[in-house]
Amino acid sequence: MQALRTTGHQGIPAVAARYRNNFLKEVEAHVEDGEWVKMCMQCGVCAGSCPFGPHWEHPPQEIFMMIRAGKRDEVLKSDAMWMCTSCYNCVVRCPRKLPITQIMHGIASYAQELGLAPKNQPTRDFSIQFWNNCTKTGRVNEMKLTVGLYFKDGLVSGIKQVMNMLPVAIGLIKAGRLNPFELISGHSPKDQKGIAAMLKKARAIEAQRAPATH
Amino acid sequence: MAKKEYAFYPGCSSQSKASAANLQTSVAAMCKTLDIKLTNIPDWNCCGASIAYAGGGELERAVMNARNFTLAAKHLPGQDIVATCAACWLNSRESKDKLDGNPQMLAQANEALKEAGLNYQGSAPVRHMVEVLIEDFGYDALKKPVVKSLAEIKFAGYVGCQTNRPFGIAGESFENPMYLDQLVESMGGEALTAYDQKVTCCGGALAFSEPDKSQKQIRDIVEAAYDQGADMLVTPCPLCQANVEVYQSEINRKQGTKFKMPIVYYSQLMAVAYGSSVKAAGLDGHIIAPTKLQQIAAKK
């Protein structure tokens, strides 16, 4: 993760200073589908349509208004966007057709890139684990993903979670839908080298495209 | 009817001994009856699903999908790409829209793909298996090979999210899509059209990271099926299937309920109606056994 450089005399992160503290412009330049944010008309249909609606610290329409109001830290440090289940209900109901799901992912991803995302946010942790898991060989290893998730908070809580889910795991193994041997080796594409090189290049291009820290 | 051929994108969960292995088993049986030839995209990789956004950026996720499209166009030219997993379909389509509609992203994707010796120059459309069934066959043609009636079974059609939004099946509404009920009826089953949790989110990937919040969703989905007198739920989505089946025991443990509602794939009930055995329809791949469907499959 890249560290934030500051401009020095004011202690304002350089990226914020570059946009003269206009957070909306920063979001438009750096966040996936960020150019849509200004289109929100504050109707709140997204909030009312979200399956996890009650759990959002700030529902999407509030996030959009906070972006326009320049509340950079409050938005990027919030765990609100991490409540998105990718159900796309807000997207199909939004009267202005904002790609809200994509924007929420984009803001979460930008917060993560800047190191501002809340630590120990479970969905943030899972998201990173998932990406690392599926890009390690090019395909998901479900066994390693599950075990990694349960043991992320240490051995004791991991064992407790495994004990709770053990009957289910045994059921899945019996049903031929979970393979303990995947801990040793799992499915994978042949050209793992090519996939790794391709992703490395894509990351380098992205870093150039969105130079968030200089 | 002439054989129909497609470039198949199975996705990670449909591999052998993965969480939706029985989806794949039943799809194979269903396709055999309908004379559909699915050829795996050689050396395909993960689509990145919906949850990878904190780890992988927009371009990285698009490049993952571009690699699959390029391999499909190279090895299986002219064949539509077909996915059975809701997330695979959605993420592939979303990436394809971006690549095909944004010349800058396309150029950058190709710069990255070059590292894997590939170049994306467009591909056939990415479609969901349900689109293939409805658009390339139609309900009447799907009805023809039926050899066993499912008349004794009441199905609550649980469409879920990602097969339905944001793309969905052409001509269907986002709020109340009817195709799953129509598929059930085409196979002679009873579709409980008043089931009101048809498009409710099961929590998706957040079933892992936010279990309590997701289990509230799953409880609603299962309870509504009981309210309608359903024998089982039926779904097109592998993650919906896994979440709703797997977490019922957790909800029972924490909340004292006695849920035991089976949840099957549309392809399983089609395979059974077409005469497949319990094993060939993947009905041996459940934690909560869909007993009534198994009984029909076992009948000679």
Q: Could you characterize the architecture of this molecule?
A:
- The complex is a heterodimer of chains A (214) and B (300).
- The model of chain A is unreliable at 1-11 (pLDDT under 50).
- In chain A, 53% of the residues lie in helices and 0% in strands.
- Chain A starts with 13 loop residues before the first helix and ends in a 5-residue tail after the last helix.
- Chain A has helices at residues 14-18, 23-30, 45-49, 60-68, 72-76, 89-93, 100-113, 122-137, 142-150, 155-174, 192-209.
- The radius of gyration of chain A is 20 Å and the shape is globular.
- Chain A has 2 domains: 14-118, Alpha-helical ferredoxin (Fumarate Reductase Iron-sulfur Protein, Chain B, domain 2); 122-204, no CATH class.
- The longest helix of chain A is centred in the C-terminal third of the chain and has 20 residues, at 155-174.
- In chain A, helix 8 runs antiparallel to helix 9 (142-150).
- In chain B, strand 1, helix 1 and strand 2 form a beta-alpha-beta unit.
- Chain B has a 4-stranded parallel β-sheet with strand order 2-1-3-4. In chain B, strands 6-5-7-8 form a 4-stranded parallel β-sheet, with helices on both faces.
- The longest helix of chain B is centred in the first third of the chain and has 18 residues, at 58-75.
- Chain B has 2 domains: 4-130, Glutathione S-transferase Yfyf (Class Pi), Chain A, domain 2; 138-298, Rossmann fold (3-Layer(aba) Sandwich).
- Chain B has 300 residues and is an alpha/beta fold.
- Chain B has helices at residues 21-34, 58-75, 86-101, 103-113, 129-137, 139-143, 179-186, 206-209, 211-227, 238-246, 248-255, 266-273, 291-298, and strands at 4-9, 36-40, 81-83, 126-128, 154-157, 190-191, 232-235, 263-265.
- In chain B, helix 1 crosses helix 12 (266-273) and helix 2 (58-75) packs across helix 4 (103-113).
- At the A-B interface, helix 6, helix 7, helix 8, helix 9 and helix 10 of A face helix 2, helix 4, helix 8, helix 9 and helix 11 of B.
